[in-house]
């Protein structure tokens, strides 16, 4: 009998990888080079990211008294152009998988489940980190690309499912933020939220999360239950 769940699509930052230290370092570097406040700590930066680099920069600028800076503001783009090459060089300095994630992915693949990453991170970083930290572990890895709407729009996940040749009835999305919950809803996918990421459990519940796991092996347990 064919499995009900044939593909698990993961977010990256805060879900499979703790990227906070490298994001914080590159963001502060870019802000310093462009004359802005640049003393943010990881506990602050984790609330900036989730909707892409431009939004993160806009949120950082808001903290220095510039609220409502649009992501297409020229200053945001100026900062992004400094951030991008620095992060490209340093995106894997201090980044690593959360506990149990490599084993979780291996267990899913042992069951014949397709695994993928769909992230609002710049695509160059998604490709680098997927290859360096998870070699051979994903059937597909997709980051932010020109011409494709970012999450929470469903475009990236819909394209991923098309490339994986699975339907929305046979996939699940795993993430750690309100963006991921909205992405799953907009893509008509069930969502597994993780408690170890960039948002608190209380926040995730307030955003409508109905399945929240505390350990990576619980993702495998959920898939097994669906496929029983």
UniProtKB/TrEMBL annotation:
Keywords: Hydrolase. One of its GO terms (molecular function) is phosphoglycolate phosphatase activity. The keyword Hydrolase applies. It comes from the Bacteria. GO terms for cellular component: cytosol. InterPro entries: HAD-like_hydrolase_sf, HAD-like_sf, HAD-SF_hydro_IA, HAD_2, HAD_sf, PGP-like_dom2. The keyword Glycoprotein does not apply. GO terms for biological process: DNA repair. NCBIfam families: HAD-SF-IA-v1. This is HAD-IA family hydrolase.
């Amino acid at each position: 009998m064919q499995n009900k769940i044939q593909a698990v699509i993961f977010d990256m930052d805060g879900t499979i990888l703790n990227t906070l230290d490298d994001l914080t370092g590159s963001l502060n570097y870019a802000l310093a080079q462009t004359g802005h406040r640049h003393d943010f700590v990881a506990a602050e930066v984790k609330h900036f990211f989730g909707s892409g680099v431009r939004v993160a920069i806009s949120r950082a600028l808001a903290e220095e008294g510039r609220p409502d800076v649009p992501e297409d503001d020229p200053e945001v783009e100026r900062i992004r152009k400094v951030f991008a090459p620095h992060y490209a060089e340093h995106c894997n300095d201090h980044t690593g998988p959360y506990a149990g994630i490599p084993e979780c992915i291996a267990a899913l693949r042992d069951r014949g489940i397709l695994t993928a990453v769909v992230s609002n991170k710049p695509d160059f970083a998604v490709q680098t980190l997927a290859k360096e930290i998870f070699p051979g572990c994903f059937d597909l890895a997709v980051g932010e690309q020109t011409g494709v709407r970012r999450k929470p729009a469903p475009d990236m996940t819909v394209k991923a499912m098309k490339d994986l040749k699975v339907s929305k009835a046979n996939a699940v999305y795993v993430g750690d933020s309100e963006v991921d919950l909205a992405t799953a809803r907009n893509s008509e996918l069930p969502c597994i939220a993780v408690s170890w990421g960039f948002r608190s459990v209380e926040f995730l519940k307030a955003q409508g999360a109905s399945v929240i796991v505390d350990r990576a092996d619980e993702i495998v347990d959920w898939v097994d239950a669906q496929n029983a």
